[in-house]
Write a structure and sequence with these properties.
The chain is of the alpha/beta class and about 250 residues long. It has two domains: about 110 residues, no CATH class; about 130 residues, 3-Layer(aba) Sandwich (Rossmann fold), CATH 3.40.50. The chain is about 40% helix and about 15% strand. The protein has eleven helices and eleven strands. The strands form three sheets. The chain has a five-stranded parallel β-sheet with strand order 8-7-9-10-11. A four-stranded mixed β-sheet has the order 3-4-6-5, sandwiched between helices. A hairpin with a 4-residue loop joins strand 5 and strand 6. The two termini are about 15 Å apart. The relative contact order is 0.11.
Length: about 250
C-alpha cells in the first residue's frame, strides 16, 4: 500500500463512505502477510517510498507466484528481477497482463499506473551494449517506482565523442545511473561533466583482468570525480533504489 491509497482509505472512513469494518478489512495485511515460506511486506511502500520487489533467483515459480498474488491482492503492482525465461513463462500463464523483458530479466504486472514521484528525470547511461542487461534492470525498476526515465546506450569512453554528443541530456537529468564494465571509467567522466548525483554500477563485463567486475568496482570506488555513489557489481536494481530516494518529491 502506498501513502495515497492509505490516505484515501482513511478519508473514506472519516467521511462515512467506508465503514470501519470494511476499512479494517483493507488494512488487515499491514504490515506484512504470511504466504507460506515468505512474509510479504505490504508496509514497505509506506515506510520506504517504494513497494517490495521480488528477487527471482533462488526462488521457485510457485514461491514467486504466491508472493505475487499477495502483492497484487493488496493493491500493489509487482516487479520481479533476475527472472529466467522458464519462471517468467509460468507466471505469465497465471497473469496474462504480465510483461517480461528477457534482456533485463524483469517481469512487471501493472494494475494501476505508478504514481509520479520524481522531481526530474533519471537518466540511465550504459557504456556498451554488453552492459544493457544491468542498465535495463535499473531503468525498469526506476520506472516502476514512479520516476521518469530516459536511457542512453553505448556511449563508453572508447569513443568519448558519443557521450559528449549528449551533453545537454546529461546536464538536464536529475540523477544519472552510469553502468559500465571493463575498467569502469564512464562514471568518472560523467561525474566530471555534471552537477547531478551520479550512481555508478560496475558490471561483470570484461576480459580476464576485469575479474568479473571487480576491476570496474575498484575503479569506480577510486574515482577522482568527487561525490560518485557506487553500488555492487551488476546491481541495477540497487542503483534504481538509490536514484528513487534521491529523486523523490517530499510527501505532504
Amino acid at each position: 500500500m502506498d501513502p495515497d491509497r492509505l490516505k484515501t482509505c482513511l478519508m473514506a472512513i472519516r467521511s462515512g463512505e467506508l465503514s470501519v469494518a470494511d476499512g479494517l478489512d483493507r488494512l488487515t495485511t499491514l504490515p506484512f502477510e504470511d504466504v507460506g515460506d515468505a512474509l510479504v511486506d505490504h508496509h514497505r511502500g509506506l515506510r520506504q517510498g517504494a513497494p517490495e520487489v521480488v528477487f527471482g533467483e533462488g526462488k521457485t515459480s510457485d514461491q514467486i507466484l504466491r508472493i505475487a498474488e499477495g502483492l497484487l491482492n493488496a493493491g500493489s503492482n509487482m516487479l520481479a528481477t533476475r527472472l529466467d525465461a522458464d519462471k517468467a513463462s509460468a507466471l505469465m500463464k497465471v497473469f496474462p497482463d504480465a510483461e517480461y523483458d528477457p534482456l533485463g530479466r524483469t517481469l512487471t504486472i501493472v494494475r494501476h499506473p505508478p504514481q509520479s514521484t520524481g522531481l526530474g528525470t533519471v537518466l540511465v547511461v550504459c557504456a556498451g551494449t554488453s552492459d544493457l542487461p544491468v542498465a535495463r534492470e535499473a531503468a525498469t525498476t526506476a520506472r516502476m517506482f514512479g520516476n521518469a526515465v530516459e536511457e542512453l546506450v553505448d556511449v563508453g569512453v572508447a569513443g568519448l565523442h558519443r557521450l559528449l554528443a549528449h551533453l545537454d541530456r546529461l546536464r538536464s537529468a536529475s540523477v544519472i545511473i552510469a553502468v559500465a564494465g571493463m575498467e569502469g571509467a564512464l562514471p568518472s567522466v560523467i561525474g566530471g561533466l555534471v552537477a547531478a548525483p551520479v550512481i555508478a554500477v560496475p558490471t561483470s563485463v570484461g576480459y580476464g583482468a576485469a575479474l568479473g567486475g571487480v576491476a570496474a568496482l575498484l575503479g569506480m570506488l577510486n574515482s577522482c570525480a568527487g561525490g560518485i555513489t557506487v553500488v555492487n557489481i551488476d546491481n541495477g536494481y540497487g542503483a534504481a533504489c538509490a536514484a528513487n530516494r534521491i529523486n523523490r518529491r517530499p510527501q505532504p
